[in-house]
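ARCHIVE CARD
Drawer: 12
Card no.: 0347
Subject: one protein chain, sequence and derived structure
Cross-reference: see card 0346
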Amino acid sequence: MDNSPQYLFLASGVNNGEGFWIVGIKNSDENILEDKKLLDCHRKELIGNESAKDILFAINLNIKNIYNELRINNYFIERPSIGISFDIPLYILENIFDFWFNTYKNKEAWETCLGLLKVRKRISLTNLIESESLKGNSKKWAVKIETLHSYVPNSLKIEKLNDPMWK
C-alpha cells in the first residue's frame, strides 16, 4: 500500500445552500483550495496516507459517538447531506482534530486512547473513571476522551412521543 503524504484537514463548506464541516484527506494542498464546496480550511496537516486514515477513523468515531449520545438524550442536531452539522461548534471539532492528531505521535498513548474510544462507543467512561477501574495513564486518557464527548447543544431537548401502534 502506498504511504504517500496526504493532507488531513478540517474545513467548512457549503453545498446547495447547506453549511457543513468536513474532516477529510486530500493528496495535495491545491485539491483542498480548489474544491468549490469548501469555504475555509481550519486545520491542515501533511502526514502519511496510513496515518491520515487512522487519525480520520478516530476523529469520525469520536464525532459519531457525539451524534449517538445526543440522539439518545433527545437532542436534535441537523444532519447535512455532506459532512458534519454546523450545530456542532468549530472549537469542538478543532479540539477533537488536535487531540487525535497529537496523540497519534505517541504509539502507546494512541493505542490506549483508541481502545478507550471504542469502549466509549458502547458506554460512558465516567463510571470507569469514578469507580477507580482505570489507573494511571488509562485514567488520564479516559478523562480526556470523556471531555471530547461532553458537547451538549444550547437547543432544548425534543420531547418525542411514540406514535400509537394503530396509526
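Annotation on reverse: The chain has one domain: 5-148. Residues 5-148 form one domain.
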